[in-house]
Amino acid sequence: MRISRFFVNEPLQLGEYEAASYLVNYIGRVLRLTVGSSVQLFDGSGIEFLGHITEITKKKIIINLTKTLVGLGESPLYTHLGQGMARGERMDFVIQKATELGVNEITPLFTERCEVKLDENRQDKRWNHWLQIAISACEQCGRSKLPIIHQPKTITQWLQGLTADLKLMLHLVAEPMKNFAKPGSLALLIGPEGGFAHDEITLAIQQGFQQVRLGSRVLRTETAPIVSLAIAQQLWGDFNTN
Prior knowledge:
The protein has 242 residues and is an alpha/beta fold. The chain folds into two domains: 4-70, CATH 2.40.240.20; 78-236, SPOUT methyltransferase, trefoil knot domain (Alpha/beta knot), CATH 3.40.1280. The chain has helices at residues 21-30, 88-100, 120-141, 155-160, 198-206, 224-236, and strands at 4-7, 15-18, 38-42, 47-56, 61-70, 78-84, 105-110, 148-149, 153-154, 166-176, 185-190, 210-213. The protein starts with a strand and ends in a 6-residue tail after the last helix.
């Protein structure tokens, strides 16, 4: 039987742990776990804590953490995704699937042709929403460390502060990804639904980005990062391990 995993945003240790209020509702009312149910908690440190519920009420859950486990290791390829902002569920999909594929950092990007406009209040709400999506994806896929979800930036801001062994952006007429030498870190730049403006492409190239093709078909903005990350993990990451 699969044991439910939960992220806790505070350092954990063996012994009794009183669940935060948001977990009380989810564990007790949504999952309907009971006293004696086994659970697994992780705090992002790479260590997992196995335990069982010893007390449960409408407002309180106590978990006795009895054992530590080494969590899943991260991919040897460090990846940073710069994603042109997509609308609604498309951006949610990118955050979720990129997390499952082992991305280490995600920066949503405002670009010239970006159709998403966020004021400061809505930007904070979206960021918190994306963070929760990443947490849920980690809980589901078994990752013990969360990716860093950055606050949205303009493409210019992101390019100027970026460091990576290899920087790639998509283009239909370019080298396939397999032709590049194995990097230790990879930055991927993915355009919005309307694509990049000419000036943005020029700026990215000036900042060290090289163009790469994934095939002969034009991929949607939410499809391109998933395909790119999967290929990168197969070539240089942890998809090719036994």
